[in-house]
Write a structure and sequence with these properties.
By secondary structure, this protein is of the alpha+beta class. 48% of the residues lie in helices and 16% in strands.
Length: 155
Amino acid sequence: MIAVVKDNIIVNLISGDRPMGQDQRIAYPWSRLWGEYTDKMPLDYAKQVKVAEMKSQRDAAEIMPIEVGGYIYDYDDKARERINAAIIALEDTSTELSWTTADQQEVIVNGDDLKTIVRAAAARSNDLHVRYRAKKEYIMALQTVDSVNAVTWEG
């Protein structure tokens, strides 16, 4: 495979033999391959790009704030660390903590409240992964670059 790069973006992939020259270096017959060049993105590459885009959107959705019990809680990496640490700290006691929500409200939570947030986030994560796998399967079955490019996370 030969990648044709323009402005640091692969614009074409060309299949070609891998002939060796007399000095055993790879010697591509460029004049023969030039005829295969096109400005259109190859279908396989378009699929890879779109699948990566869907994965990125899934990952972004996983760390969005989550609503539980009428309150919206942060659920990014730092928030997950704090929630897990608080669950451990509150595991053997009925102690409650003052917690600041994503929209800056102060609420009182206990270990069970925090576990409910984690369960809700796990269910959301599962839904997002199921959706991503379905999108990926759909994208891989498409037969044109235009149809691949038309796929959106929301649709």
